[in-house]
């Protein structure tokens, strides 16, 4: 299997680059559920990095439920987490918590225009090459971190969305106020993951 290389000049840690490369292969469907990943030794040789770097990358993917390890057999791509179709209560997490009188905070870690991953194209029935706006946020309620959320929205329906500031702001309300888009249908993927450095 061919992999892009790690940028040794970049200030981004090697383990994070490797994690993202593997994650992209899985999200794009090139590595499918049940597929075995290259061994630690093979990854070390391919990317010319230490075993510590490889283990950090694999451990992060394990924490996120993307892969799992079987002793003596290797590391495998995990099955997708529980997917939940939702039609009712599609007014968003922010509004829901506010209506309950709770203090909501959102920290935006990623908000950009990207190529739609294969999994997202399938769920949203998008043509290949369709751009989407990806938003990755940390959501806190009453100062306590409760979830990480990653949202994908069709870019052709909301041009310029990636330039909007979504810090402590409802995405659903923005879609309505600026683009007159009301969410009536979507998919949620739910799963529990170990707290990462973002939640420390």
What does it look like?
It contains 6 helices and 7 strands, in the order αααβββαβαββαβ. It has helices at 14-27, 40-47, 51-63, 93-99, 118-124, 171-179; strands at 67-70, 74-77, 82-86, 104-115, 131-141, 144-154, 186-190. The chain has 2 domains: 14-77, Arc Repressor Mutant, subunit A (Orthogonal Bundle); 82-199, Chorismate lyase-like (Chorismate lyase), CATH 3.40.1410. Residues 82-90 have low confidence and may be disordered. α1 (14-27) packs across α3 and α2 (40-47) crosses α3 (51-63). A hairpin with a 2-residue loop joins β5 and β6 (144-154). 16% of the residues are buried. With 200 residues, the chain is of the alpha+beta class. A 3-stranded antiparallel beta sheet has the order 4-5-6. Pfam families: GntR (PF00392), UTRA (PF07702). Keywords: DNA-binding, Transcription, Transcription regulation. One of its GO terms (biological process) is negative regulation of DNA-templated transcription. Residues 12-80 form the HTH gntR-type domain.
